[in-house]
Amino acid sequence: MNTPLNGIRVLDLSRILAGPWAGQLLADLGADVIKVENPKAGDDTRQWGPPYLKNSDNQDTSEAAYFLSANRGKRSIAVDITQAEGQALIQKLAAHVDIVIENYKVDGLKKYGLDYASLSALNPKLIYCSITGFGQTGPYRARAGYDFMIQGMGGLMSITGEADGNPGAGPQKVGVAVTDVFTGLYATIAIQGALIERQASGLGQHIDMALFDVQAAVLANQASNYLVGGITPQRMGNAHPNIVPYQAFASKDGHIILAVGNDGQFKKFCDLAGCPELALDARFATNPSRVANRLVLCEHIATLIKQRNSEDWLAALEQKGVPCGPINTIDKVFNDPQLLSRDMRIQVEHPLAGSVELAGNPIRYSRSQLNQTKAPPLLGEDTETVLRDLLGLGADEIDQLTLKKIVR
User: Per its UniProt record, what InterPro entries does this chain match (predicted)?
Assistant: First the structure.
């Protein structure tokens, strides 16, 4: 296949979500990603269910939906890195790969001889990406870090949820582990940057990724509202701190999102809603004035939106070019004709279930292809193949390692 990362090989020592997300994206882009797992139970997320994948008899398999979400396209080898022979296998494999991804605690792999210093001595071209809660330096470096706590520490929960004084007020986490996902994306970008740099230098390097850093970075305009404007952002429910009207409103039979991004769109909305005078009112004519008079304007808009059904509003607003949308449940998302037309719901063969449905990769190239044909692997599915093909081990040697429970 004409994939962007064809010929690149990755050793993925990571678990849970941030590291595996980066590994899955690299696999989608064509890299050969070898996932190293604990022979006893594998990646923690294999047990993070229900739900579990169903087999042809509609019975639960051992494959949790969570694991399936982040490990497409990889090969799995089960190696006990706590034992010297297991460590030796990983060290030998590191000489045959371009990239290592790991998310152990700081210095957690040093005692096994699998840290950057040890492996780069064996392979100077190795790009080694470490993902931790707080990074390799700083006063918090030794702390464990998980998405939920980083959403709290990193400010995201302080701006997510209803404002104080409103029903249901209080900090809320996002419904997806977005800090992990963002960290996986940043890690992938960093790895590809290091691959390009290696073409000139001939050397690999260590990449230090921290969930806390990433969460601060993706605060985006909210970070600038504080750093530039000196304003500490607060929870505002579905409202936007810098744009009005840009939030959810209750309709006669549900809710819609009204996302007015400029003054022209606001005028179109007012004309459509039968209140053109609002667009001429000095309190609402420009976005800064609408932000300053947010409460009175949104109360008026809320009354208007409540008078018609969601479907009526969405059809009329779309026809006039006013940005709007429904609030879909996930089942509606994955049955949306637009999403289906973009191949965002894919089906791949699976050894236990016959096939498994997954969310597709959103990248679209004009010439290159993605590789999304291999299902997330069973635990140790590829141990024998990898040890034979990359390290030249014979069947007897692999059998001995299996008997000693070094591999599975």
Answer: CoA-transferase_III_domain (IPR050483), CoA-Trfase_fam_III (IPR003673), CoA-Trfase_III_dom3_sf (IPR044855), CoA-Trfase_III_dom_1_sf (IPR023606)
The reported pLDDT for the residue numbered 252 is 98
Q: How far from chain centre, in Å, is Cα 356?
A: 20
Q: Could you give the CA distance from residue 237 to residue 279 in angstroms, rounded to a whole number?
A: 25
Q: Quick one: average pLDDT of 92-99?
A: 98
In a shared domain, residues 202 and 343: yes
Residue-range definition of the domain harbouring residue 324: 246-332
* Residue positions counted in the chain: 408
Residue 1 has pLDDT above 90, yes or no: no
CA gap 318, 242 in Å, rounded: 23
pLDDT above 70 coverage of the chain, percent: 100
For the question of residue 180 being annotated catalytic, the response is yes
Tens of pLDDT, residue by residue over 342-351, are 999 999 999 9
262 domain residue, yes or no: yes
Q: Quick count: other Cβ atoms within 10 Å of Cβ 370?
A: 22
Q: Which residues, including other chains, have CB under 8 Å from residue 189's CB and lie 6 or more apart?
A: none
Q: Give one DSSP letter per residue of 124-192, joined into a string.
A: TT-EEEEEESS-SSSTTTTS---HHHHHHHTTGGGGSSBPTTSTTBS----SS-HHHHHHHHHHHHHHH
Yes or no: say if 87 and 112 are a contact pair by the CB < 8 Å rule. yes
The catalytically annotated residue of 28, 180, 208, 213 is 180
Which residue pairs from 302-309 have beta carbons closer than 8 angstroms and sit at least 24 positions apart in sequence?
302/249, 302/250, 304/273, 304/274, 304/275, 305/249, 305/250, 305/251, 305/256, 305/258, 306/249, 306/250, 306/251, 306/252, 307/252, 308/251, 308/252, 309/251, 309/252, 309/253, 309/254
Q: What radius of gyration, in Å, describes the C-alpha atoms of the chain?
A: 25
- Mean of all residue pLDDT scores within the chain: 97
Tokens matching residue 63: 């494959």
| Residue 358 β-bridge partners | 346
Q: State whether 177 and 87 are in the same domain.
A: yes
Q: What is the pLDDT of residues 145-173, one digit of tens each?
A: 999 999 999 999 999 999 999 999 999 99
161 and 25 both lie in a single domain: yes
Domain boundary among 285, 310, 332: 332
Q: Please give the average per-residue pLDDT across 86-99, as a whole number.
A: 98
What tokens were used for 158?
Answer: 């302080």
* Percentages of the chain per state (helix, strand, coil), in multiples of 5: 40, 15, 45
120 and 178 part of one domain: yes
